[in-house]
Amino acid sequence: MEHQSRISRRMSQSAVIQAIANYGPTSRASVAKQTGLSKQTVSEIVANLEAEGWVRVVGQTEGNIGRRAVVYEISPSAATIASVDLGGTKVRVALCDLTGKVLAERVEPTSHEGGISIVDQIVRLIRASTDAPDSNFGELRIAVVGVPGVPEAETGAVLMAPNIAGIDQIDLAGSLQDRLGVEVFVENDVNLAALGEHWLGNPGDTDDLVFISVGTGIGAGIVVGGNLLRGSTGGAGEIGFLPFGADPFEQESLEVGAFERVSATKAIIDLYASKSGQTADVPSIFEAANAGDAAALTTLDEVAKQISRGAAALVAVVDPSAIVLGGSIGIREELLERVRRYMAMCCPKPFEIEKSRLGDHAALAGGASVALTHLHLSLFAEGQKGAEISVPPPDIAYFKAGAS
């Protein structure tokens, strides 16, 4: 009986905090109406939440019979979460409050030493903000790290991440958890970017979208029915290994991916060199194309055709409502325009490709949404089986408010 009472209390608390998160500032009477709980039950739960600092009074509003009703909202400073975007060239750390607003952001080149030095770097960047003398952040409660590979649940190693040395030799989540003293989740960075676009940037407010990231490599995050599609081993969306583009039976294709060999950074650099006899980095090739350089224009056309083939394959298999193109290369207008044009030529039905609205904050936004969802569940649902809490997204400008 006591067990049932405890479960009921958890469910009621979860419903109340969800109502305040979604409709706040709101009164206790409104919460009771939204949840179907009695006004007395809501008042008791809200009083406890206020005493513990999770909700706060933000004013009063006129009641139905002229009396003023106290209104509540989630207390932003009650807790802090960390969202980390670990890339082959940069590591970006954002600290967010309980509403998803970025309080502080730090970026620096990824440690070339790899392995455990990556753990040291992430911890240092997080502590640099949380331990700053002028910091008034809430207690750090949880961290989510996006990685350019596939986290292995059994060992904590990150596989298929050739751009970060030694990350497949350590328990990344476990090491960070030991150092930070909080729960840590590690997720593929493109998956997080897809969740970020679904949470904040969502074109057409759809629950079915594919995010394609083109940068150092190429990958996809797939959201179906509002949920991330991970696959049996977490490798769903590793489209760099689609067996077309380059010869999929060559050794390099087994290590890098046949499709990635014709669609990402190295492909652009190598293709331009073969056509022009010159070596240039990707930004310079885009500049040359904009200046009318024939070799650069042909390079972008051919790479865009390859990306369009991959996007068309995803449309045929997943049938999403939207495809969002992002990443340091994918977000370039010169490439986006070409991909749209070639998609129209190879896809049997009209299909619009959108540009990422979040840019280099997409994975950070996804990490924040995952962290906040886990935190709300652990705090207010207390791990009850089957509990669901959807954290309402902040405005994009509000989310980036503390970004550097």
Automatic annotation (TrEMBL):
One of its GO terms (molecular function) is kinase activity. Coiled coil: none annotated. The keyword NADP does not apply. Residues 12-58 form the HTH marR-type domain. It holds the Pfam family ROK. Keywords: Kinase, Transferase. The keyword Transferase applies. InterPro entries: ATPase_NBD, HTH_MarR-typ, ROK, WH-like_DNA-bd_sf, WH_DNA-bd_sf. Belongs to the ROK (NagC/XylR) family. This is Sugar kinase.
